Amino acid sequence: MSDLTVLGVETSCDETAAAVVRLSADGGVTVLSSVVGLQTEAHAPFGGVVPEIAARAHVEAIDAIAAEAMARAGTGWGALSGVAATAGPGLIGGVMVGLSFGKAVALARGLPLVAVNHLEGHAVSARLAARIDYPFLLLLVSGGHCQLLRVDGVGACTRLGSTIDDAAGEAFDKIAKSLGLPYPGGPALERLAASGDPGAFDLPRALLGRPGCDFSFSGLKTAAARLAATCGEASRADLAASVQAAIARQLAERTRRAMTACAQDLPPGERRFVVAGGVAANGAVRAALQDLASELGWSFHAPPLAYCTDNAAMIALAGAERLALGLTDPLSAPARPRWPLDLAAAAERPTHIPGRKGAKA
Ligand code: KG4
Ligand code: ZN
Description:
Layout (H helix, E strand, L loop, with lengths): L3 E7 L4 E9 L5 E10 L1 H4 L7 H23 L8 E7 L3 H18 L3 E5 H7 L11 E6 L4 E8 L2 E7 L5 H11 L6 H9 L24 H13 L5 H28 L8 E5 L6 H14 L2 E3 L11 H12 L18 H6 L13
Parallel strand pairs: 1-4, 4-5, 6-9, 9-10
Antiparallel strand pairs: 1-2, 2-3, 6-7, 7-8
Helix pairs in contact: 2-3, 4-10, 5-6, 5-7, 5-8, 6-8, 7-8, 8-9
């Protein structure tokens, strides 16, 4: 395989992002540029992402963001080996914008297109900064997803568990909102928690000791909302710290189960653990998982903070890894609002059925 230089495009939520990444023949990865345009101000008055506003903002921003990514990379369009665009899962209007942009570049430049699963992008995000071989155990924790997956290679994922209600980032965001914190809630809650006592409030510990690797955050969310309404100004930081500790504790407890299950058929040298997604930016979450990994003898990997939240470098790398295997997509590739990584597990144990066991993820 020769070196591959790929333009990545990401528009599945409220970041308009483009990046150029080079995957060398020896497996080395170089991020030549990574540009992320935020829409925070457009959504802030609504306390969350408004899909229609996001889609329109992507249309307005994508040309300039991609041009900037190409300019910063300094390679010229002629050096590209392919274009990778997020094709789902995500807010469909936004996904269509980025995917259409990717298709237009592919058509105009005669380049192969890779329609990338956004979750596969998060899965490879830690590989942007460090060499991490397959297989690895992945905890994917973002605003829309909370899953434990065994990743054996490109596109080869087995889901070990997922949330039965809210995603971890969603829980951070909603609890932050009930504490009166601005959107996006996760980072704001972490800042408030810094001056609080994580042991101050006794919060529900959902699924504790229950077999399997699924997650649940709705009980915590309800309890925290009730406390937020009554706790008074002086205790807000304590509540934020207690919530953060409760989320970190549940993530670590369920990951412990996944590690124990995976260790049965993985030799010690192959016990690699990766945490990715926006919530992986949280210091308390990272620390709890790092402690767990060192206790059980797993290596611990997390992307640099810039690659935890949505970005296009991870999409470019996922695309380059597919391209290296000859996996490309036709210009008719559809945009998909839902697109599970482990299709078999999703069909057998759906997480988006309506009702009590129905995750929105
Ligand atoms: O991966 P991401 O950018 O988008 C999705 O694919 O969902 O993740 C965004 C999520 C949001 O819920 C945000 O509140 C959360 O990640 N997040 C954090 C932190 N930074 C981002 N949650 C807790 N602490 C943080 N420092
Ligand atoms: Zn994401």
